[in-house]
Design goal:
75% of the residues lie in helices and 3% in strands. By secondary structure, it is mostly helical. The protein has a 3-stranded mixed β-sheet with strand order 2-1-3.
């Protein structure tokens, strides 16, 4: 294959997890189940937040945005993977691959920024409760989400444009289940020095920067929790913080590990397994960790389901 513009009409092959045919039904069923749980759980959070006026607060505003980002993140990669398994085809066109990579990077970054914003929201609520409504006003909340969208759009656009300048040779097999940035760059025949530098800088500035902000917020939260006199109150607060930090750690450490280890000699299987953690598992766990354990969300969901059942009974009558 010639290098240059002809690459734009070429195709990539997504090798997935395994080429053994007997494992494909198991992989299909596992990822379909996780995808449906992710979409259903996050969709319930969005519906509950919209339908219940008691949840029209900054915390649930950010949660609903995180749920939307999680749905979009998994929908960018999982359906294509399931179609490939079902049709026994590994082909993805060059344009579709770049498009998938763009939206994946966008919603992955949005997840990262929203987790940081949510940590800051909890920091203000716990450490400065008397000034919470003044600090976290609707205008600031809207600006934080808008800034997150703009930053993610610019970042994913930059990475996509950097990939578009690359030329590819005959070896177009991606040892992954989606068009992951590092894997695509490694397939290029042309010089990838600037691509690697942009990837590292983005991982350090955006990924590590957001993680540092989250850890700082939770350190302040933990020091405030220690001042609580009630042992039960301390236990509940520490339990919530621990569950939040466990998901954040899973998301950031696996994600940063993948993007900062592109030059290291890790097997494609280990990279794909790590990618599953931050692309599929954490979006699936977020509704349970952040919301479904929350009494306000449970109450809102019961009201929502009760309202739907009552409407169904009235329509039948």
């Amino acid at each position: 294959m010639e290098m240059g513009n002809d690459t734009r009409s070429s195709e990539f092959l997504l090798l997935g997890f395994s080429e053994e045919s007997e494992l494909q039904p198991l992989i299909f069923g596992l990822f379909l189940s996780m995808y449906l749980i992710t979409v259903l759980g996050n969709l319930l959070i969005i519906l509950a937040t919209i339908s219940d006026s008691h949840l029209h607060t900054p915390m649930y505003f950010f949660l609903s945005n995180l749920s939307f980002a999680d749905i979009c993140l998994t929908s960018t990669i999982i359906p294509k993977m399931l179609v490939n398994i079902q049709t026994q085809s590994k082909v993805i066109t060059y344009k579709a691959c770049i498009t998938q990579m763009y939206f994946f990077l966008h919603f992955l970054g949005l997840d990262s920024f929203l987790l940081t914003v949510m940590a800051y929201d909890r920091y203000v609520a716990i450490c400065h409760p008397l000034h919470y409504t003044v600090i976290m006003n609707p205008r600031l909340c809207g600006l934080l989400v808008l800034a997150s969208w703009i930053m993610c759009t610019l970042h994913s656009l930059l990475q996509s444009l950097m990939v578009l300048r690359l030329a590819f040779c005959t070896h177009l097999k991606i040892p992954h289940f989606f068009c992951e940035l590092n894997q695509i760059v490694q397939l290029a025949c042309s010089n990838t020095f600037f691509n690697d530098m942009v990837i590292y800088l983005a991982a350090v500035l955006l990924g590590c920067g957001c993680l540092a902000g989250i850890l700082y917020s939770y350190c302040k939260i933990v020091s405030s929790i220690r001042a609580i006199s009630s042992s039960r109150g301390k236990y509940n607060a520490f339990s919530t913080c621990a569950s939040h930090l466990s998901v954040v750690s899973l998301f950031y450490f696996t994600g940063l590990g993948v993007y900062l280890s592109s030059a290291a000699t890790y097997s494609s299987d280990s990279i794909a397994a790590a990618s599953v953690m931050y692309t599929v598992v954490t979006p699936m766990l977020n509704p349970f960790i952040y919301s479904l354990r929350n009494k306000d969300i449970k109450r809102a969901l019961r009201r929502l389901l009760r309202g739907k059942l009552e409407k169904g009974q009235v329509s039948r009558d």
